[in-house]
UniProtKB/TrEMBL annotation:
Protein name per UniProt: Class II fructose-bisphosphate aldolase
GO molecular function, one term: aldehyde-lyase activity
Biological source species: Candidatus Pullichristensenella stercorigallinarum
Cofactor binding note from Swiss-Prot or TrEMBL: Binds 2 Zn(2+) ions per subunit. One is catalytic and the other provides a structural contribution.
Catalytic residues, chain numbering: 80 (proton donor)
Amino acids binding Zn(2+) 1: 81, 194, 230
Cofactor: Zn(2+)
One GO biological process term: carbohydrate metabolic process
InterPro entries for this protein: Aldolase_TIM (IPR013785), Class_II_FBP_aldolase (IPR050246), FBA_II (IPR000771)
Binding residues for Zn(2+) 2: 112, 142
Length: 301
């Protein structure tokens, strides 16, 4: 399957491609099976922090596991967040990671230079786009400040952040960014919240979030490329559905599957039991939250 064509087809049909994160390697098998059993199309993805701070081991190990359980016509392998400046505010040697992912068979990649200036973000993204496009795969980038609580709960109340559109992606910046960076998909900041990675917050419920539907529609109209929503867990379902209609064509989901796996392991320390919990929750998300069950009939043809 061609990741670029599928995400574009999702945009054109007002559908969405879920992208499920793998912070723990055993999660991959049940997620792939859930996607198949719901006749959906989804990405299975891993971010750098998930092999640095969780238990996905490496991007190569995820690719090896994916090769065992990939479902033809239903799953794609995506490299999620490779930061230029990471969550600890350290510089990352990101280009070799992208090259490793291409060698390992990833079908799309994401570079996150959103902690840089606009010009810096454009330059870093363009450097990745040049490498990825030469290999025939699409690039996702991020613009704006998707909220998160990596180290502690945000000091500013969520409602104030949303009302003032603090860190939200602007149409002006996005237009320049897409034109000059050569990215294929753009992750936008429109109200969602990244999941926690700090130890004291790992099992906490995410702050309730909503989406600025009007801003999403404005961005999609101005850019005419698929938009991506990071921090998909914890958003009211009505906002998700409206966001898809407005231009969100890929949505990342991590916390909603990581937490059931980790809770199950604490309860029984049984990988197969934890896998079953992930499988059930993933099917629920596909069917009842994202409403992508059966989408393979449209997206994979």
């Amino acid at each position: 399957m061609d990741a670029k064509k599928i995400v574009r087809k999702a945009l054109e049909n007002k559908l969405v491609v879920p992208a499920f994160n793998i912070p723990h390697l055993p999660m991959l098998k049940p997620i792939a099976q859930a996607v198949l059993d719901e006749n959906s199309v989804a990405m299975i993805q891993v971010a750098r922090l998930e092999w640095e701070k969780f238990e996905s081991e490496s991007l190569e190990r995820v690719a090896e596991e994916y090769a065992k359980y990939a479902k033809e016509g239903h799953t794609l392998l995506h490299l999620d967040h490779v930061p230029v400046i990471d969550e600890d505010h350290l510089e990352v040697d990101y280009l070799p990671i992208i090259q490793r992912a291409i060698k390992a068979g990833y079908q799309s990649v994401m570079v996150d230079a959103s902690r840089l200036s606009l010009e810096g973000n454009i330059a870093a993204t363009k450097s990745v786009a040049d490498i990825a496009h030469a290999a025939g795969i699409p690039v996702e980038a991020e613009l704006g400040a998707v909220m998160g609580h990596e180290t502690e709960q945000a000091a500013i109340p969520y409602e104030e952040i949303f009302e003032k559109k603090m860190g939200f992606t602007t149409v002006e910046d996005a237009t320049k960014f897409v034109r000059e960076s050569d990215c294929d998909w753009l992750s936008v900041a429109v109200g969602s919240v990244h999941g926690a990675i700090a130890a004291n917050l790992l099992d906490k419920k995410k702050p309730a979030a909503k989406l600025d539907i009007e801003r999403i529609a404005e961005l999609e109209k101005a850019l005419d490329i698929p938009l991506v929503l990071h921090g998909g867990s914890g958003i009211e379902n009505d906002y998700i559905l409206k966001g898809i209609q407005a231009g969100i064509a890929k949505i990342n989901v991590g916390t909603e599957l990581r937490q059931p796996y980790e809770r199950a392991m604490r309860e029984k320390n049984d990988v197969e039991y934890a896998r079953e919990c992930v499988y059930k929750r993933c099917r629920e998300l596909i069917r009842d939250f994202l409403h992508t069950a059966g989408d393979a009939e449209i997206l994979a043809k």
